[in-house]
């Protein structure tokens, strides 16, 4: 009743917000495609680009560059707004894809394919912070308070959806029948990168003429960038959230990097392996949508995140066990589905919680810090798990589907210990989060108080 009385001309939303949501979602989708292009076809990638670690480098460069570029992106988005950040990210992503496309052509000497391709990957990696930090900014400025969580869910989950689609489609393009089909695959990825470039025509404002909510009123001034960073790190709630949610992002990156080689050494085929990557994300989309609706309706950030985190931990334990056995597709499918649905439901509402806990710090600052902390942890987890791999036994060597050439047989490894390390890290994060995360909803409390004051006056 009161909320309906308080909706007046001071705050309004515009239909154009849906175009902005589509554009931000598409660039995140495309950048996800670009990031994970080679993860599901590791052995073909290493062979085609004449580098035994090519697939690993293509993945890790995104995580490494996200740190220095991330600080620049945080400052830029807070200083100059959504519009310019979108254009920078969109064009860098597209140019990077064009360079990768050229590098994948058969007309390029094999000895220089990798240097050219990694250059293109680096340019696209430069775009990542500019596009991944946008969802909370978009939701805060353009959407009503009862739309923010679902808007943030749709735009932020577009990146992992892009990852899932690419993880599934890469083995369709590049496989035993077409081991060198990288050029056609990159044509498809570059074509998708062109879509947000076209949509950039409609992104001509950083914020609407009239604020959507009281927290975006002219009375609310975000602190300068460096002060905002210090304010974030003075908040115990934010530190716990950044370490645990960021750690979840990092562990997800490690899982995506390690899933395909871990499955193929147990005899699972390329189609199944790629499908598991897709299932991980698509189940996550369902979980994220449900959690977003719950949070928008009831605002139970903390309870939803803690329950989902614990369920994800159980699923991670199940996956760490079944990954060591062959012919248990049903167990792998069930573990990945539950882990994806529970684990990914945490991500978008966690980013919103970061904004809530640090208000009035600018949205890109809190979001960017969480994602950067996640990327730092991701680099650590990927390197640590790859150092813990072992030699497969004769039975695994007989059933493996990773390679079909004897000169590459040394690249086949076993992943029992890395997955136990991965599980241990998840368990530690769950214990920290469940015991130490007790947030205050600063933004929602401010908006509620502002509406009451306006109503009384």
Protein model, in words:
The chain is an all-alpha fold. The chain has a single domain (13-199, 216-456), classed as MFS general substrate transporter like domains (Growth Hormone, Chain: A), CATH 1.20.1250. It has helices at 2-5, 17-36, 42-48, 54-80, 82-103, 110-132, 134-142, 148-173, 182-199, 225-234, 236-264, 270-298, 301-322, 329-358, 363-387, 394-399, 416-436, 442-456. It is globular, with a radius of gyration of 22 Å. It starts with a helix and ends with a helix. Residues 1-8 have low confidence and may be disordered.
How is this fold's topology laid out?
Blueprint: H1 2-5, H2 17-36, H3 42-48, H4 54-80, H5 82-103, H6 110-132, H7 134-142, H8 148-173, H9 182-199, H10 225-234, H11 236-264, H12 270-298, H13 301-322, H14 329-358, H15 363-387, H16 394-399, H17 416-436, H18 442-456
Helix pairs in contact: 2-5, 2-6, 2-7, 2-8, 2-9, 4-5, 4-6, 4-15, 5-6, 5-9, 7-8, 8-12, 8-14, 11-12, 11-14, 11-15, 11-17, 12-14, 13-14, 13-17, 14-15, 15-17
Entry summary:
The protein is mostly helical and 457 residues long. It has helices at residues 2-5, 17-36, 42-48, 54-80, 82-103, 110-132, 134-142, 148-173, 182-199, 225-234, 236-264, 270-298, 301-322, 329-358, 363-387, 394-399, 416-436, 442-456. Helix 5 (82-103) runs antiparallel to helix 6 (110-132) and helix 13 (301-322) packs antiparallel against helix 14 (329-358).
């Amino acid at each position: 009743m009161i909320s309906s009385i308080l909706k007046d001309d001071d705050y309004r939303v515009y239909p154009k917000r849906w175009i902005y949501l589509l554009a931000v979602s598409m660039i995140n989708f495309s950048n996800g495609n670009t990031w994970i292009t080679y993860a599901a076809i590791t052995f073909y990638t290493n062979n085609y680009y004449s580098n035994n670690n090519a697939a690993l480098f293509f993945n890790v460069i995104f995580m490494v560059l996200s740190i220095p570029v991330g600080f620049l992106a945080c400052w830029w988005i807070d200083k100059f707004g959504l519009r310019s950040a979108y254009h920078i990210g969109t064009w860098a992503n597209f140019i990077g894809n064009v360079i990768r496309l050229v590098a994948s052509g058969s007309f390029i000497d094999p000895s220089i394919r990798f240097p050219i391709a990694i250059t293109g990957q680096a340019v696209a990696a430069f775009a990542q912070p500019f596009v991944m930090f946008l969802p909370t900014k978009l939701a805060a400025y353009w959407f009503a308070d009862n739309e923010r969580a679902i808007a943030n869910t749709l735009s932020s989950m577009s990146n992992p959806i892009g990852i899932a689609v690419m993880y599934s489609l890469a083995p369709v393009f590049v496989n035993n029948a077409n081991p060198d089909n990288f050029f056609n695959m990159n044509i498809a990825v570059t074509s998708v990168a062109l879509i947000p470039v076209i949509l950039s025509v409609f992104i001509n404002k950083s914020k609407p003429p009239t604020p959507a909510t009281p927290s975006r009123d002219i009375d609310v001034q975000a602190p300068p960038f460096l002060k905002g960073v210090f304010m974030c790190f003075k908040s115990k709630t934010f530190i716990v959230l950044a370490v645990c949610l960021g750690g979840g992002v990092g562990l997800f990156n490690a899982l995506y990097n390690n899933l395909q080689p871990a499955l193929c050494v147990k005899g699972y085929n390329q189609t199944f392996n790629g499908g598991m990557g897709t299932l991980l994300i698509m189940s996550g989309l369902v979980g994220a949508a449900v959690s977003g609706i719950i949070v928008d309706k009831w605002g139970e950030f903390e309870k939803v995140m803690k329950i989902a985190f614990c369920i994800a931990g159980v699923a991670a334990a199940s996956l760490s066990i079944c990954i060591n056995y062959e012919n248990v597709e049903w167990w792998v499918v069930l573990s990945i589905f539950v882990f994806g649905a529970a684990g990914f439901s945490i991500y978008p509402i966690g980013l919103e919680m970061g904004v809530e806990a640090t208000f009035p710090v600018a949205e890109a600052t809190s979001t960017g810090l969480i994602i950067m902390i996640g990327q730092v942890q991701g680099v650590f987890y990927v390197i640590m798990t790859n150092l813990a791999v072992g030699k497969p036994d004769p039975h695994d060597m007989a059933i493996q589907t990773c390679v079909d050439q004897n000169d590459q047989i040394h690249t086949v490894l076993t992943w029992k210990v890395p997955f136990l390390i991965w599980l241990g890290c998840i368990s530690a994060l769950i214990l920290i989060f469940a015991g130490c995360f007790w947030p205050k909803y600063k933004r929602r409390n401010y908006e509620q108080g502002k509406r009451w004051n306006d109503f009384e006056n």
